[in-house]
Amino acid sequence: MQKNGPVALLFHALVVAFVLAPLVVICLVAFTPENTLTMPTTAFSLRWFRAVFEHPDFVTAFGNSLWLATIAASISVAIAVPAGLAIDRYRFPGRDALNGLFLSPLIIPHLVLGVAFLRLFALIGATGSFAWLVLSHVIIVTPYVLRLVLAALSGLDRSAEQAAMTLGASRFTVFRRVTAPMILPGISGGWLIAFINSFDELTMSIFVTSPATVTLPVRMYMYATESIDPMMAAVSALMIALTALAMLALDRVFGLDKILVGEK
Amino acid sequence: MNRSVATPLMLASPGAVLFAGLVIVPLVLTLILSFLAYDHGTGIKDSWTLAHYMHVLSDSYYLGIFWRTLRLAALTTLICALIGAPEAYILSRMRSPWRSVFLLVIIGPLLVSVVVRAFGWSMLLGSTGLVNAALAAVGLGPVRLLYTETAIVIALVHVMLPFMVIPVWTALQKLDPMVEAAAWTLGASRFSALRRVVMPQVSMGLLSGSLIVFGLSASAFAIPGLLGGRRLKMAATLVYDEYMHELNWPLGAAIAILVLVANLVIMLAYNRAVEARARRMLG
């Protein structure tokens, strides 16, 4: 086994410090007792966390984001699982085009999707509608779910399905009792990745949210461009904590490195 | 036989309908919008015009913003490659527990909202931030970092680094470490083993990483919005301003279409490069 030399390890330490620095600073400043963005040195305080929960804007936006991400992730799973089955199991005309269509949101900048949705929603009178906001999020998170579902399906040993079929199970029963349980890690990993992506999305959402449907990242962006006080650090620290929890869950369910790096 | 066409179409149709209605239709509508005339008094008109594209591609204000966007995205890509590739290589040579721990440390921030990370950098780079405090400690005067291009690039590199590390790491996983060791045994120096054995394997990962990083940086919104301030605009913040402040939707749509086309051209060029390389390797 080749080892990393001291220079390599120093480089590595610097990169890790660079990656973690802004997150660590946020988590420290969130506990400041002062009115300005300062590092707490002698005393720690929870006052800015309290301020977040007394700020109705942030609470509402958090609720919106939570609902939005939950519903969007669930719908995208409901779309991606059958679509994945169709693409993995069948050869039919338009299969490649369909696959390309489902994955296309990955190569269209969110900015472009944002203005495109804004135009559509304005024309059909759906501006500020929560339902249409959900659908726009379904579009941007479905590719991630589909990729995981396809990966799970292609890595599947099909002899169990064939056995069930031979024993007289109907197609639907085979899916429900054999296929679905075997690709469940892919499905749940996909749901979580979709949830996180939807929850964090800013660039597209900022075009299509209204004051009533504003999401947490959009609210935070607006807040940060207007004023900067430690409350922003407290909200950010809460989001980091939430993300860390989600990462932990993801790691338990599927193995985070597998999802993010995509190795099989 | 008939059944095998009907079943997949039935399975895929809900998604297909949704994606056709919410990807293709809005993009076509935006393309149309970018050719519609606009009047500051009365709004969008029903007549066709190329004026928005002409205006955007000739006015030095817009050209300056496009040039900044390309320049900062290229710089971000270069720095990400210079940091990300060696880091991926170092990670791949780590031992078992540390390898996955640090892979998570490098890639995990990907899951933290960009707004949060941009805010973190605005605190670090502010006039009373940690970076200036550190500079003061070694006797260097306060440097104005926040609301400069430097700040934008630093934060972009931070956000994009995982997108460079992941493909290079994946490429390295396919490389048998014994091949590099074999090169050493055969008398190659460490440097020439890296250059002649590791680099060719990594180059495809590096290329696809660079592409993702460039594309995402060029259309980044939150970073220039929060770290560039009102003055230093990039393409995405420019489109946002045209839509939300100037209310000139057709002009904003024209810029968005240009961003999309530039993105697609780069992707196509990449596919060409991959195919050309595959053909070369097959002889």
From TrEMBL, chain A:
GO terms for cellular component: plasma membrane. Gene3D superfamilies: MetI-like. It holds the Pfam family BPD_transp_1. It is a multi-pass membrane protein. It comes from the Bacteria. The keyword Membrane applies. Its main location: membrane. Keywords: Cell inner membrane, Cell membrane, Membrane, Transmembrane, Transmembrane helix, Transport. InterPro entries: MetI-like (IPR000515), MetI-like_sf (IPR035906). Belongs to the binding-protein-dependent transport system permease family. This is Putative spermidine/putrescine transport system permease protein. It comes from Chelatococcus caeni. The lineage of its organism: Bacteria, Pseudomonadati, Pseudomonadota, Alphaproteobacteria, Hyphomicrobiales.
UniProtKB/TrEMBL annotation, chain B:
Pfam families: BPD_transp_1. Keywords: Cell membrane, Membrane, Transmembrane, Transmembrane helix, Transport. InterPro entries: MetI-like, MetI-like_sf. GO terms for biological process: transmembrane transport. GO terms for cellular component: plasma membrane. Residues 66-270 form the ABC transmembrane type-1 domain. PANTHER family: ABC TRANSPORTER PERMEASE PROTEIN, INNER MEMBRANE ABC TRANSPORTER PERMEASE PROTEIN YDCU-RELATED-RELATED. This is ABC transporter permease.
